[in-house]
Amino acid sequence: VQLVESGGGLVPPGGSLRLSCAASGFSVFSNYMSWVRQAPGKGLDWVSVVYSGGGTTYYADSVRGRFTISRDNSKNTLYLQMNSLRVEDTAVYYCARGVYAPYYFDYWGQGTLVTVSS
Amino acid sequence: EIGLTQSPATLSLSPGERATLSCRASQSVGSYLAWYQQRPGQAPRLLIYDASNRATGIPARFSGSGSGTDFTLTISSLEPEDFAVYYCQHRSNWPPLTFGGGTKVEIK
Lengths: 118, 108
Fold this sequence. Notes:
The structure holds two protein chains of two kinds. By secondary structure, chain A is mostly beta strands. Chain A has no helices and eleven strands. In chain A, strands 2, 4, 5, 6, 9, 10 and 11 form a seven-stranded mixed β-sheet that branches. A four-stranded antiparallel β-sheet of chain A has the order 1-3-8-7, with no helix packed on it. Chain B is globular and about 35 Å long. In chain B, a hairpin with a 6-residue loop joins β4 and β5 (45-49). By secondary structure, chain B is mainly β. The A-B interface holds A 36, 43-46, 49, 58-61, 94, 96, 99-106, 108-111 and B 34, 36, 38, 43-46, 49-50, 55-56, 87, 89, 91, 94-102.
């Protein structure tokens, strides 16, 4: 089982970025998949989840309406489209697989750094 | 929103010693609490879920207890690789998820 994030970088406030998380060893479609972020030197902050199968999605209040989680089953890849980025969105973004339930995470990627700055 | 407060912020111990970490919820979260370990430069690792169940592959020296508002993670005898930051997490009003602020276990 492996998760590999990509797509992070430096973006100005108000800009957009799309993160990718390529999964191997299991099916993204058949598992709960989340994005969790961590601002530099800070704690963990859950961002969004997509449920297995039907693909119901949920978001943290801080990102609802700006971020969109999605998946491409043919590529076995999870995405996070981030629009209207703010300085406070600066963080390492991890994708993570839910185990036992959608809200406990057993496998995590290595993270990708998003820096929002002018 | 239910908050989680972890204490102490930093725990200074020697290898072989017992570590006791606390996580307190502002309201009852039942048994819906997990613990994660994060080593420097690494992603978090699930240790305990539903307050007291060890995740797959987690050594027996890690144990979790508690329910309602008060929870404890115990490491019975610290190994060198256990010096890390530990986070608790609840899901009682999922979504969203809430994490605690973390406890750093450092070498004394």
